[in-house]
Amino acid sequence: MFGTSPFASATFAGMGSKRQDITASAITTGAVSVANTTFQEDDATPVIGFDMGGTSTDVSRFDGKYSHVYDTETAGITIQAPQLDIHTVAAGGGSKLQFKAGMMQVGPGSVGAHPGPVCYRKGGKTPSVTDANAVSYTHLTLPTKRIV
Question: Domain ranges in the chain?
Fold first, then answer.
């Protein structure tokens, strides 16, 4: 069993899962949270979950029912247990950005606890995905709404 938390246990109560039955609870909690907060039963439009963490991004889909897989491989280890169908890509907010052959490449390394020069000003020298997001957002004109 991978690490689980009391929050994950509460999240899965509606699925009929018990804490000891949950693998990769942090990843699964993100997918379940997206399903619980964005899916609208009246129109039944499927929703896509996009959960970006520090070193990876987890993508899930919910169409009113949870899709399960029973055989997965993580870091070269086969896990044979029921799990939600979630795909992890190796690009998170802390993934390194570099230029190779004139193209931007993300990863495979991480900037670690000292993010790049734009976001946190912690002395990081290598730009990360989060730095690129911050720079691109400064060039967008977003509508603003006063929240009272």
Answer: 6-89, 95-138
